[in-house]
Design goal:
The protein is an alpha/beta fold. It has one domain: Aldolase class I (TIM Barrel, Alpha-Beta Barrel). The chain has helices spanning 6-15, 26-36, 39-46, 53-60, 110-121, 135-138, 157-170, 188-193, 205-208, 211-217, 223-233, 242-247, 262-270, 296-303, 318-326, 336-367, and strands at residues 65-67, 82-84, 87-89, 93-95, 125-127, 147-151, 175-178, 254-257, 275-278, 309-311, 331-334, 381-383. Strand 10 (309-311), helix 15 (318-326) and strand 11 form a beta-alpha-beta unit. Helix 5 packs parallel to helix 16 (336-367). Bound molecules: flavin mononucleotide (FMN). Flavin mononucleotide (FMN) binds next to helix 3. Pfam families: FMN_dh.
């Protein structure tokens, strides 16, 4: 059974009169999903920093690369598997951490449902610090599929330690420290609607369930006190000196998210990081940058095989997944696409998005004669123009 066989399932379904329930193009997915969401979530999820040039560049950067077909290397079965921190994963795809995931399903348990998408597809789930259910209640929904925990490092070091040790105890297999969000970026769409979900007390379950956070608020805090305590601790302006402390918080693999410069990648590994996550946060944090894909080859060269490199920002199609792999990503994560799938069609909608991306990637690898991850080297792509 190949991932590409999803298309056979869909065609056979149509033959027996069942037309596909979920959309196939990203614009359809986005517009239909946004139509189901309340206005404040629409701006928060779809919007980005500044006039969103960087956000658009994340997607258009993929147009700068072309996959070169190779013939007489047809394999009826492709092998999309990768090795990551000692695990063999069936595919190179991951679900990026998304802080309002909990809010996108009507029951407000979207984090659990995101984990269910992971369980159904074998695609690992990276749970955000900003969940609507405590991380201990989200992890079991992943089943046997691995989960990682993403840390927004609080200013309070004891709270950071508490979140990391809870994630370890709950079975998360790596800690992803997001470096680019110690302060929120300038987001005109949210500014115009005065909207910031956390300031309205949303997605704070990992804080309100935390013993150290309870010490910080005191007993029975009112919602305003909870939010103000969160505001006071959320964003820690980390520097390289903090990495020694972060490193000793856990024996789990430590992955640094937001690394785009080769010198930062080298220094991160020299300072004890186990993985590099090349991302510009989907263009939500700083406008005026280029597509994250353009930073990937230099980051990969700097890492030089010493550690895995996860990539996200702008991945919308199976072709994008294959291109990022060819440019050296070990694994490729998606943000908005699975959020929209979940918002529009619940767990089946999220599963459809993941299966569609995998099917397209698998079929491209088949048609273009790159049957395994190892075949996808930089020689598989050319810069256009
Ligand atoms: C609504 C939203 C919330 C996000 N929340 C987080 C978060 O809590 N932690 C984090 O590290 N990244 C967060 N991200 C960034 C994603 O992890 C990822 O880097 C980004 O979505 C990738 O770009 P894409 O949406 O174009 O695929 C968020 C992204 C979106 C769209």
């Amino acid at each position: 059974m190949s991932y590409g066989d999803y298309q056979i399932e869909l065609y056979l379904g149509a033959l027996s009169g069942v037309l596909p329930e979920h959309p196939f193009s990203y614009p359809d997915l986005e517009s239909q999903a946004l139509a189901t969401l309340p206005p404040e979530l629409r701006t928060y999820i779809a919007g980005g920093a500044g006039d969103e040039t960087t956000q658009r560049a994340n997607v258009s950067a993929f147009d700068d690369y072309a996959l070169v077909p190779r013939m007489l290397n047809a394999h009826a079965e492709r092998d999309l598997s990768i090795e990551l921190f000692g695990r063999t994963l069936p595919t190179p795809l991951m679900l990026a951490p998304v802080g309002v995931l909990g809010l996108v399903t009507p029951d407000q348990h979207g984090d659990v449902h995101g984990a269910e998408v992971a369980a159904a597809t074998g695609v690992p789930f990276i749970g955000s610090t900003l969940m609507s259910d405590p991380l201990e209640e989200v992890r079991p929904a992943c089943g046997d599929t691995p989960a990682w925990f993403q840390l927004y490092t609080p200013r309070d070091r004891d709270l950071a330690a508490s979140l990391v040790s809870r994630a370890e105890a709950a079975g998360y297999e790596a800690i992803v420290v997001t470096l680019d969000t110690w302060v929120p970026g300038w987001r005109p769409r949210d500014l115009a609607s005065g909207n910031f979900p956390q300031l309205r007390g949303k997605a704070l379950a990992n804080y309100t369930s935390d013993p150290r956070f309870a010490e910080m608020t005191g007993p029975d805090p009112d919602p305003g006190a909870t939010v103000m305590t969160w505001v006071g601790t959320f964003g820690n302006p980390l520097t390289w000196d903090d990495l020694t402390w972060l490193r000793q918080l856990t024996d789990l693999p430590l992955v640094l998210k937001g690394i785009c410069h080769p010198d930062d990648a080298r220094r991160a590994l020299d300072s004890g990081a186990d993985g590099i996550y090349c991302s510009n946060h989907g263009g939500r944090q700083a406008n005026g940058g280029g597509g994250a894909l353009h930073w990937l080859p230099d980051v990969v060269a700097a890492v030089d095989g010493r550690a895995p490199v996860v990539f996200d920002s702008g991945v919308r199609t199976g072709a994008h997944v294959v291109t990022a792999l060819a440019l050296g990503a070990t694994a490729v994560a998606i943000g908005r696409p699975y959020v929209y799938g979940l918002a529009r069609g619940g767990v089946p909608g999220g599963v459809h998005v993941v299966r569609s991306l995998l099917a397209e990637a698998d079929l491209i690898m088949g048609v273009d004669g790159y049957p395994t991850r190892a075949d996808l080297t930089p020689d598989a792509v050319r810069r256009r123009g």
